[in-house]
Specification:
about 675 residues; alpha/beta; 8-stranded mixed beta sheet; 5-stranded parallel beta sheet; 11 helices; about 35% strand
């Protein structure tokens, strides 16, 4: 129960004040004139002015409310290092028991685990949510039991009471970590890319200046190097292949360090080809000759060398030899000395005319077997006696001409095998493509027929020869698509895919296994020309394996989705296909810094005059402190009693009843008049 005087004025306070001033002036005038009843008149005026304020005696029936202490207990991954988890739990139990033993005190104990994905420790998020659920006027203190490593300090709330940080780590803790400071997402094949790494020791680390580092590419056997500690390391690396390259750096665990979870770093770099160097050899001029050139020149990533045989050597028209060419064409340099510089050689309606000796064409055959690529766009020349097939190239060409030339309209179609092959699978608009008007009949001797033409005859044949690849297009009318004849067709896309398949780009391999990671989830993709594939075997970072069945989502394409249980390097295998993929960073955010420290939270703690104490020194005592006073000291922490209450009922009664006010004022006025009348 608590009482106080409250006012409920009948008139605005300004009017009452004016009346008070007027009453005071009247009393002063009475004193100046020497009236004997001035005091009684003044009292009567005061009673009347006071009555206008309507004073009442208010009595509240209050129920005291308990103080609330928020105890945030950090249970993130870094708190499971060494003995931190046990120390933290024991201290929280002891503090909770001591607080609950105090009168009028409640404890809100909140456990905070790891954030979703790789969000780290979200202490301030949990604290903000807890403050939103409690009346701020009842919060007497905030206790954080943590290693002080949090990742959401930027959203720290305004605190209504002192905050105390009780550190769980030991002063002699130390840790070694590997940091990737610079790693590009893409790099050009055959060009050196520089990665910047750094190995740092934190805490009470031993006096060491060097350590070993292991480097492994795509899960292969690692190479070991000795490197300095505490210095930036610049590592030049040349990517071994196109597509995703997974590079793993590992520093061996040192004796006594807190954890090895931050001793590994994964870098995933996509290898891309800088330029596609193409040699285009055109035979006699034809309507589609310029189309090949324009298509290749339209791609800024293509370096094109093109020569066309406009005049065969046997032609005799009296033109002086000195006027046949501006320069002597460097056939020897191109086909003997510099042939290895080209990624792709295209023969467009080329026939033997003695310009390229057999030794040059034999060198082209060797170039393919050693890893090069040749595309033959055949015309009537391929069916003639001077066909390029009647040369050393016959050993690598996947089909033999029958010498028959088919001159009729037909619509190119993708074969059943071609529906699965990455070069032709899903080409846009199939069934609505414009017709071609000529085809050379060939008999396949190897390779894979992915497109067919008139009467289902082979039209596009792909083959692997040695380390290289060969493609044969048995028609010289592909240019009709580019000109939009009868609606045209995807000539540019087909040529692009052909070139990338011949360059052995991973995304266009017939038999391939890869994964597309997103956070902790990966989509596993297996492409094959077979009707069925086996289950994919997944080897997790901890060495455990499991198998997943792949489902066919399109002809030749099988997929499944896998949720990785932990961050790290995963190995995939199915049959002879192998792949590696990294999920998340090799060192989770929670393990980037593991030494317990209160420096990040210190500015926030000092605002409320709280403190940072180590639990290794024992569980501190709890004291009550007044608001604004220091709330922490050696071996103790403080809470601020809030003295909050709930009002159950309110009772009001006038200080003086109206009749008593009227009677008292009248009596004072009458007494003053009588006093003055005696004089």
């Amino acid at each position: 129960m608590m009482g106080q005087i409250v006012f409920d004025p009948l008139l605005p306070w300004a009017v009452i004040a004016a009346l008070g001033v007027l009453a005071l002036a009247g009393t002063a005038l009475a004193v100046w004139r020497g009236l004997a009843g001035w005091a009684l008149r003044g009292l009567a005026a005061a009673v009347l002015v006071g009555a206008l304020t309507q004073p009442s005696w208010q009595v509240e029936n209050r129920d005291p409310l308990s103080d609330i202490v928020l105890m945030i207990e950090d249970r993130s991954a870094s708190q499971r290092l060494a003995e931190r988890a046990g120390v933290t739990t024991a201290a929280a139990d002891a503090l909770q028991a001591e607080l609950e033993a105090r009168p009028n005190t409640e404890v809100r104990r909140i456990a905070v685990g790891d954030g979703e994905g790789d969000a780290g420790t979200q202490l301030m998020t949990a604290l903000s949510a807890a403050l939103a659920e409690e009346p701020r006027g009842r919060v007497a203190g905030v206790f954080l039991l943590s290693d002080g490593r949090l990742h959401d300090l930027e959203i720290a709330p305004d605190l209504p009471a002192p905050m105390q940080l009780l550190l769980s780590g030991q002063e002699d803790d130390w840790d070694r970590r590997l940091i990737v400071k610079n790693a590009p997402a893409f790099a050009i094949l055959d060009e050196e890319v520089v990665l910047t790494l750094r190995i740092e020791d934190e805490g009470a680390a031993p006096d060491e200046i060097r350590t070993d580092i292991e480097i492994s590419i795509d899960g292969a056997e690692p190479s070991t190097f000795s490197v300095p500690i505490g210095e930036d390391l610049e590592l030049p690396i040349t990517l071994p292949h196109g597509g995703l390259n997974v590079i793993q750096f590992t520093v061996p665990e040192a004796e006594g360090e807190l954890t090895d979870r931050n001793n590994t770093a994964l870098v995933q770099i996509n290898g891309v080809r800088d330029r596609l160097r193409v040699l285009l050899v055109s035979g006699e001029p034809h309507a589609g000759g310029r189309t090949w050139r324009n298509l290749l020149k339209s791609d800024s990533s293509v370096d094109l060398v093109h020569f066309t045989i406009l005049r065969p050597p046997e032609k005799q028209d009296g033109v002086p030899v000195t006027e046949l060419s501006l320069i002597a064409f460097p056939t020897r340099e191109l086909f003997l000395d510099k042939i290895e510089d080209f990624d792709l050689i295209i023969f467009d309606r080329y026939q033997r005319r003695g310009i390229l000796p057999a030794i040059y064409l034999d060198n082209v055959r060797r170039y393919v077997e050693d890893g090069g690529a040749v595309l033959i766009a055949a015309g009537p020349d391929f069916a003639s006696a001077d066909s390029i097939y009647r040369s050393p190239l016959a050993e690598i060409i996947p089909a033999e001409p029958t010498a028959r030339l088919i001159e009729e309209a037909y619509r190119p179609e993708i074969t059943e095998l071609g529906q699965k092959h990455p070069v032709t699978a899903g080409l846009e608009g199939e069934g609505e493509w414009g017709r071609w008007l000529r085809q050379i009949e060939v008999e396949p001797t190897g390779g894979e027929v992915v497109m067919q033409g008139a009467d289902d005859r082979p039209l596009l044949i792909l083959d692997r020869v040695g380390e290289g690849r060969v493609a044969l297009l048995a028609s010289d009318h592909a240019w009709l698509w580019n000109r939009g004849f009868e609606g045209g067709g995807p000539q540019l896309e087909l040529l692009r895919r052909l070139a990338h398949w011949m360059m052995k780009e991973p995304e266009l391999e017939e038999e391939a296994l890869w994964a597309e990671p997103t956070g902790q989830t990966m989509r596993i993709i297996r492409r094959s020309l077979e009707d069925e594939v086996g289950p994919v075997t997944i080897t997790r970072p901890d060495g455990e394996t499991e198998e997943l069945v792949l489902e066919q989502v399109a002809p030749g394409r099988f997929e499944t989705v896998y949720e990785g249980p932990e961050i790290g390097l995963y190995r995939l295998s199915e049959g002879e296909q192998q792949a590696v993929v990294g999920l998340g960073p090799a060192a989770p955010r929670e393990f980037e810094q593991t030494i317990a420290s209160g420096e990040a939270l210190r500015p926030l703690i000092e605002e409320g005059r709280g403190g940072v104490l180590r639990l290794e020194e024992g569980v501190p005592d709890i004291r009550e402190v007044r608001e604004g006073r220091p709330a922490a000291g050696r071996g103790w922490i403080g809470i601020t009693p809030r003295e909050a209450y709930e009002t159950l009922s309110v009772t009001q009664m006038p200080v003086l009843p109206s009749w008593l006010v009227l009677l008292l004022a009248s009596a004072l006025i009458l007494a003053g008049w009588l006093r003055e009348g005696r004089r």
